[in-house]
Amino acid sequence: MAKNTLKLDVKIAKEIEYWIESGIYGEGDRLPSERHLAEHFGVQRETIRKALRFLKDRGRIITKKNSGHYIASKRITFDLNAFSSRKKIMEKTGKATFVKLLTMEVIQVPDKMLKKTGWPAGTMAYKIMRLRYAAGQPEGLERAHIRCDLVPNLSETDVHNKSIYSFLNKEYGINIAKSTTTVSVVNTNGLESELLNTKYSKPALRYEGLVYDRQGRLIEFFDDIILKDRVQFVKNDI
Fold it and tell me: Which residues are within 8 A (CB) of 154 and not within 5 positions of it... i.e. 6 or more apart?
């Protein structure tokens, strides 16, 4: 009996996913109530609840207390085997993107980062923090460190609402070739929660990595925070 029930709730979940993929329901739309869904599929409400939990675990819907179930925003997909700028990745969702410069300063790279990058002691870097929006909503907090000696005279104007990599290519002839990435699950701190407009200690993904140019030079160390329910990672064969 339990086995048949499981098959039925997954089948219902797949049908609701079809509604989403075919455009019957779009991002932010409210699904029919559990009662109406139970009547539509001719099943008990507990079966509907299981189907909705399945969809929630897959990031397809979100639940608002005392309100109902809504279609979640399309997740940002990162291919762990391919390099692309964060801007291009987010644009693949079909949403208009905007990146706001929060802070930019020149610092001496701390010892902890020296160990991760292999940069020599005393290396100076631009510390850049930006907030990326998609469809008017904050999607990710970007924290980049770029070596000053490779890109002298970088200014705030150069990194506000622009692709940094495109600018580096145009102005400095730097061609970005590859990156190495580490993904870990974290909880947002106070500042991250405020900037991303979410609750304190919200589950998030820390997207940390190194970016190299075609000459094999390490150009950037980045450390991004993206809300867990906004992103998915894939690993395509290459």
Answer: 126, 146, 148
Assess contact for 73 and 227: CB atoms under 8 A. Answer: no
In terms of Cβ atoms closer than 10 Å to its own Cβ (0-12, 13-18, 19+), residue 106 is exposed
Q: What is the pLDDT of residues 131-186, one digit of tens each?
A: 988 778 888 899 999 999 999 999 999 999 888 999 999 999 999 998 888 888 88
Residue 200 corresponds to which tokens in the numbers above?
Answer: 């304190």
- Among the ranges given (49-63, 66-80, 110-124), the one the predictor scored with the smallest mean pLDDT: 66-80
What is the DSSP code (8-state) at residue 230?
G
131: helix, strand or coil: strand
Separation of alpha carbons 48 and 33, rounded Å:
10
CA–CA distance, 116 with 78 (Å, rounded to integer): 22
How far apart (Å, rounded) are the C-alpha atoms in residues 138 and 196? 5
In this structure, are residues 109 and 193 in contact, taking their beta carbons and an 8 Å threshold? no
Tokens 């970088």 sit at which residue? 154
d(CA 159, CA 125): 14
Q: What average pLDDT is seen over the chain?
A: 85
Q: Are 69 and 54 within 8 A, CB to CB?
A: no
Model pTM?
0.64
- Cα dihedral 17, 57, 53, 196, rounded to 10, equals -100
